[in-house]
Write a structure and sequence with these properties.
The protein is of the alpha/beta class and about 400 residues long. The protein has 14 helices and seven strands. The longest helix is centred in the first third of the chain and has 26 residues.
Length: about 400
């Protein structure tokens, strides 16, 4: 549960006029004045800083934290046992890859890593809702969506190891390169979606961003353009409740999904730890976009179980009790409970998956350590398509700087 400070506000006067009420300029009578003088003055309302939000936010949910299936009037999903096991497998393997990447950073093999721990359901559910010809614009944390798009996990690590600028061809998987600049990918997604609409293509675009990015001007601009041009784009906000060390109440005074109303398109809040609900809501939003009905905002209400990145220490600003409360809502555990209750998976399935996840961890570990160092001069190769005198000058200066180390070794 998050908290939100509520500032005292001066009530506005009503602008409505009623003909039955007449205004007068008569002075008050002596009796009225005397009664008023005796009446105690009303004290101004105190500001209720730290007043809690609703403990249970209004959201779409199809699978409770206890693993019980529930229905929703607007969003449904009907999956086979095999499809349910597939979603579970996706989340387990994504979490295992993420854990291995975190360990590799701690061992000095990666410069940085942004963990998705706790957000597997939001990413796998939305990622599996996409069609092959839909296009994805991620941030730097969408490892689960990348998995759904067929991007090899090892390719995600090259940038964090410093050996490439991305590691995959975006057009091969319709999955754009990771975007480090906060919120800028929403504008890229909107422009791409506007192009899709002009081309008459039967596809949609999805842009991922976090609750912190919702405060960026780029996001507001993308909302405006997408609404005005009726762009086929879905904005998927993973509200993990902490923008680095700033809680959500420092970002907004209303639930994030309600912001869409001000721009003229619908918004919905979904249980971000419920993979079935995330799948159903995202599928509906994408189908709506493909029908030419314009943008939609999805707020996946979830929680960042780990640090913002490996350079962050969440114990400095978060209470242990808060994390413990969300551990009980674990997205993987709740789906496992449902699979077991429905008899959709046996112990052999879970045992085999555990072995597969360990094999994935080993493959990732070996691949990262085997990545060759890039040619230092390669950073100048693709700055401009046709070259540039300033880049040529900088290349020559850097080459001379590199050569100075070789000369120093020879002089020894």
């Amino acid at each position: 549960m998050t908290v939100e400070s509520t500032a005292a506000r001066t009530p506005r006067r009503s602008s409505k006029r009623t003909s039955a009420v007449k205004t007068t300029t008569n002075k008050p009578t002596k009796a009225t004045a005397k009664a008023t003088a005796k009446a105690p003055a009303k004290k101004p309302a105190k500001a209720t800083a730290g007043a809690p939000r609703n403990s249970e936010p209004e959201l779409v949910q199809l699978l409770t934290p206890e693993g019980e299936r529930v229905e929703h009037p607007d969003y449904q999903v009907d999956l086979t046992a095999e499809e349910l096991r597939g979603l579970y497998r996706d989340m387990v393997l994504t979490r295992r890859f993420d854990a291995e990447a975190t360990a590799l950073q701690r061992q000095g093999e990666l410069g940085l890593w942004a963990s998705l721990l706790g957000q597997e359901a939001a990413q796998i559910g939305s990622g599996r809702a996409l069609n092959d010809d839909d296009y994805v614009f991620p941030t730097y944390r969408e490892h689960g969506v990348a998995w759904c798009r067929g991007v090899d996990p090892t390719n995600l690590l090259g940038m964090f190891r410093g050996v490439n600028h991305g590691g995959w061809d975006p057009n091969s998987n319709n999955f754009h390169l990771y975007t480090i600049v906060i919120g800028s990918q929403t504008l890229h997604a909107t422009g791409y979606a506007m192009g899709v609409a002009k081309d008459g293509a039967d596809s949609a675009v999805i842009a991922y961003f976090g609750d912190g990015a919702s405060s960026q001007g780029d996001v507001a601009e993308s909302f405006t353009f997408s609404a005005v041009y009726n762009a086929p784009v879905v904005f998927f906000c993973q509200n993990n409740q902490w923008a680095i060390s700033e809680p959500t109440e420092k970002q907004t005074r209303v639930p994030l999904y309600q912001r869409a109303q001000g721009f003229g398109f619908p918004g919905v809040r979904v249980d971000g730890n419920d993979v079935l609900a995330c799948l159903a809501v995202t599928r509906a939003a994408l189908e709506r976009a493909r029908r030419g009905e314009g943008p939609m905002l999805i707020e996946a209400f979830t929680y960042r179980m780990g640090a913002h990145t490996t350079s962050d220490d969440p114990t400095k600003y978060r209470a242990d009790e808060e994390r413990a409360a969300w551990e009980a809502k674990d997205p993987i555990l709740r789906l496992r409970r449902y699979l077991e209750a429905e008899g959709a998976a046996d112990e052999a399935f879970f045992t085999e998956l555990e072995a597969e996840s360990e094999a994935l961890g080993k493959r990732v570990r070996e691949a990262v350590r085997a990545m060759p160092d890039p040619d230092p001069m390669a950073m100048f190769d693709h700055v401009y398509a046709d070259g540039n005198p300033l880049v040529d000058e900088e290349r020559a200066q850097f080459a001379a700087y590199q050569a100075s180390f070789a000369d120093a070794e020879e002089d020894k």
